[in-house]
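User:
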Amino acid sequence: MKKAIPLIFDTDIGSDIDDTWALAMALKSPEIDLKMVSVNGFGTDYQARLSAKILSVAGREDVIVAKGRSTDMDPRYQEEWIGDYSIEDYPNYKDNAAQAIVDYVMTSDEEVTILVAGASTNIADAYKIDPRIANKCKIVAIGGVIYNGHCGGWYPPLGSDWNVKCDVESWNEGLVKSDIPVELLPLDVTGNLYLDEGYYSRIKACAEKDPVIKALCENFEVWAKNIEWGGQGGTSALFDTVGVYACFTKENLEYQVLPIYANDAAQTLIDPERGKEMNVALRWGDKEKFRKFLTARLCGEI
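Assistant: Predicted structure:
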């Protein structure tokens, strides 16, 4: 097996549940050496506590938890699971995510992969602090929509994806205008991705013996209750798990290099004049194959 990839997971965890699934997947993937969880996009005190408690349950207090800038939006759908856990109980906490990213990347002996699974705020802020990080890291970013048809027709034409729309200025500053190499995972491949009842039942059956899966399932059920999610049996959409997968393999995904730019309406456009060339995943070879892989990985079978 190749040496594990040093990874910073930059996330808006605590809003949609897919970030929690992605964190569990990263913790269960031997191809990944998780170094930091940097949070952004909502109430970052809450997000930091959530991340820290999951890492503590997993026995991974070696992983840095770093807090980015908060916004006015502050959903706390998983607060019930966190309980009275305090960030002061976590031994590896940083209160400035952008600086923490710069410090880690610039002192690393290896190229660092940054998985951006939310707003690009922390990345844009880090690049402003020290543009030299572009020589020592690459970004795998989840966001945008290129060809709507590949999403299964469920997304509106020329739609604006949340990860871009919530901070389009930072998306362009951190991803398009920076010198950091970018691999992009738009809704074309991350959208319309669910695990059915059979797959979820297999994962849930592992909770008794696996603290990571126990925490994941508890969080999913708290989240589903608090947003009054109407799904039956299976999971909600698991966008960000595709990002974890793409950090260590391109198998089963079809890529094309395209010049990508986001306009003021947060539409991700193929724009040869303003765009930056990114390696963009446009379609699956076999999406069901990924569902099987994800289930087996979370169950510890592979």
